[in-house]
Amino acid sequence: MADISIKHLVKRFGKVEAVSDVSLQIADGEFLVLLGPSGCGKSTILRVVAGLEDADAGEIVIGGRLINFIDPVRRNVAMVFQNYALYPHMSVYKNIAFPLQIAKQSKEEVGLAVGRAAAMLGLENLLQRLPGELSGGQRQRVALARAIVRAPQAFLMDEPLSNLDAQLRIQTRLELIQLHQRLGITTIYVTHDQIEAMTMGDRIAVLSEGVLQQIGTPQEVYRRPANVFVATFLGAPPMNLIGGELEWVEFGWRFRGDNIDVPLSADVTSPPEDGNPADMRQVKLGLRPEHLRIGPPGETGGIAGQVQFLEPVGSDLFLTVEAAGTLLQVRTDPDSPLQPGENVSLLFDPWRAQVFGPDGQNLRRDTAPVESAAALAPAAAS
Amino acid sequence: MMSTVSAEKAWDELTLSEAEYRRAGARYRQRRSLRAYLFLLPYFIPFIAFLLVPALWSIWLSFNRGGILDPAKYVGLENWRSIASDTELTGAIQNTAVYAVEAILLVFTLAIVLALLLNRYRKGSNIFKLALYVPLLAPAVLVGLIWQFLTNFDFGFINLALDAMGFDRLNILGSGRLALLTIVLAEVWRGLGFWTLYFLASLQNVPEELLDAARVDGARGVQRFRRVTIPLLRPMLLFAVVIAIIANFQVFDTVYVLTQGGPYESTSTMVWFIWKRLFQFQETGQGYAAAVVLLAIILALTAISFRVLGARRKRRA
Ligand SMILES: Nc1ncnc2c1ncn2[C@@H]1O[C@H](COP(=O)(O)OP(=O)(O)OP(=O)(O)O)[C@@H](O)[C@H]1O
Ligand SMILES: [Mg+2]
Q1: Whose CA is closest to A364, among A350, A374, A378?
Q2: Are strands A186-191 and A154-158 parallel, antiparallel or unpaired?
């Protein structure tokens, strides 16, 4: 067991910079989720940590030991590969047993450990099959079993649940959380599934195009997105953004835009020192769909709008409302009697609103979790 | 950036200076490649002793007279001048080229077709594989003798068959074109088993799911073969072409047994030419010069093969 520090990691493939100056500190026993869209460099980071790719710059420290120049064989990490990488010539049993046999464990120990891993992932009936005779989800579970069958310094998991059906995914997710609680092994877990990220991670690191955007607990990242990218990447549907300007009026901020003039709480950003700075002219107001409430038209402090579409998804009803010169998503009660064409006003608690500056960064000062320097988006730094 | 971390050293501060990092990285990569070189060493020693040194020695001897039994005497470009104007050598180069193109094209075509059939119809295929492979086990001289019997004017199987069907007998090894063709056929017959198994193994390495995908994408048999199988076989094909060029440009034993380069030098190949200069005419210098020419031709053809068939850019999976 060990903590992992990734310091100013850079990895290039020819001209493509897959990872740009990413720094992450992962505490001993922490479960860190790497979240980001396809191609943002998540797998590359894992492969560098595992030693399968050489870093172009930056250091990887595991348990206080600089491992950049240590052979992958001796790094003692277990990895679940995105494309499974099962040994096609070995049965499921042998695949799972492989790391233990390499470590020269006794036959009984191996059998016991394989049995436990297989039971946890529901593979008991498949042990004698070859990988070629399994479905995608079954293969993925074998890959997972092969990783968790031993207790390495760290787990590196590259979208280990992406191919499981919804039910199995929830179940395996829980199993993994329990496993992590039981063993407490430091884990870097890659996913682009937000639910997984939110439910599993002690902290989430959000990446875009090789650049770390934000790192924090799921709540922090969700409630106080560091920039427009994080705000719109997390949440389904994503945070609504409304263009306009910010103005300091009588000890408080107001947001003004197309058909919108609302008060915000004083802490969306620091008060101006003298007059209204120019960079408050082009800001974006961010409001989550679930933070918008529907009120009767003409309500004071509300945003006037007209309902366009309804999207019932069972537990919720998502409304598309034309307001403030754009289309806003609103989450509401599925039993709401609203119909398209109806005029409404949208209300929200001012303290829930986020405001993003012209550079896309959140203007709120406390966006970054204080304990971690890595929280600052490198895009803004240097 | 953050005020809280300024008090003590920031955790993300690098421990190695840029120079140290570069040095450690270089050492790490060196260790990895050193291991590779160690494994290559047992190969390099005989390579240097038995290939590189003799090759360089031959180049040196091509500027000398003698050198095998009697001491070498430097004669400058004399050997090169005499082989340059020797029509037997130009003829031998031409014969070798014609032979190699015919033999390689024929044996590869047949081998790929057979491999495709064997790959498709697995039942009883082992018997065929065995039958195809047996000629390779026979020594080249024996193969030559077999073909001599087949093509003999008086009692050869081919002429007996022609006779029986009412055709005129053919003096096969006595006419230049047919004699060269006989050498082609003998070598093809000998190599067919090996190349069939080689291409069969290559075909079985093509992932079935890619062919499945091509099937679903609407590619018919020939299209699948041309657009999926062949590109995937490229590296194997490159190896096959290079090996076949090297082997066939050195064709010798069948020539020796069947025709002795005749009639009228019409089946004289490069190695036959070299052999004659070295061991029959005592013109060792000319033999070495011709050997250097052969080496240059083979190297050039190998380079061209790599150019045409080689991987564009290596990509990791
Ligand atoms: N071997 C390689 N050669 C060249 N470019 C590469 C290579 N591997 C990855 N890349 C590029 O590096 C970037 C990051 O790739 P990576 O596989 O880390 O993405 P990812 O975040 O894991 O995406 P996904 O969620 O789709 O798996 C991509 O732009 C990709 O095209
Ligand atoms: Mg990936």
Answers
A1: A350
A2: parallel
Q: Is A44 in the pocket of ligand 1 (CB under 6 A)?
A: yes
- Same domain flag for B222 and B303: yes
Class of domain A4-233: alpha beta
Kindly report the pTM of this predicted structure. 0.79
Whole-number Å distance between alpha carbons of A330 and A302: 14
pLDDT of residue B2: 42
* Residue whose structure tokens are 């006989």: B182
CA distances from B2 to A225, A374, B27, B123 (A): 18, 9, 36, 73
Shortest CA gap B17–chain A (Å)? 10
Phi and psi dihedrals of A13, rounded to 5?
-115, 100
Which string of b and e fits B76-91 if b means at least 16 CB within 10 Å? eeebbeebeebebbeb
ipTM score of complex: 0.73
Q: By C-alpha distance, which of B179, B204, B201, B195 is closest to B135? A: B195
What's the CATH code, domain A240-372?
Answer: 2.40.50.140
Q: Is A8 on the interface with B (CB under 8 A)?
A: yes
pLDDT one-digit tens code per residue, A114-161: 999 999 899 999 999 999 999 988 999 999 999 999 889 999 999 999
Q: Is residue B39 part of a domain?
A: yes
Helices A166-183/A136-148 angle, 10° precision: 0
